[in-house]
Amino acid sequence: MPISVFLLDDHEIVRRGIAQLLESEEDIQVIGEAGTAAQALARVPALRPDVAILDVRLPDGEGVSVCRDIRAALDPPPACLMLTSYSDDEALFGAIMAGAAGYLLKQVGGGDLVGAVRTVAAGGSLLDPKATAVVLERLRKGDEPEDPRYASLSPQERRILGLVADGLTNRQIGAELFLAEKTVKNYVSSLLHKLGFSRRTEAAVYAAERRRSGSAG
Q: What architecture (CATH level 2) is domain 148-211?
């Protein structure tokens, strides 16, 4: 039986390129794709792929959250390969915590991506042992209870909170994270709601206090 793969990326040309690359291999079959987190969450349970290749940054959410949700919903769960354009420690931490089997930059060569699909489909892991060790160390140091408000934030919301604390406007944050200004505004509204604040300045002060106290994130 060929390895069945599902693709999640908000750029159609990227999905087409990956699909063409994988379909050229006799032992790999692309059985579905999506451009948003919502589409993926609706389609993956019905398709039950062996491997899910998930973009980390999506217009309506986080690939890490999709990884966690589909792994929790399916038995056996698919092996999830996180694919991103940027090296990001927080996203890597989130991917490991969500149970991802691998974390690759989009600059990866075609042959390496094919090999990665085969590796995780066979039960292997492509996570750097050093990165995994850092995550485990962070967990060991987490003796103090995490602020449940902060814990409720997605990795993207945490990134945006940090940039709010740095004094960036929504437009500047959008330029930094390659997001539309309206999307940033929605993220800010969401994180303010989760933190229980009504004003942006309150969130900035909160984030600055976390930094001073040395809290993770």
A: Orthogonal Bundle (1.10)
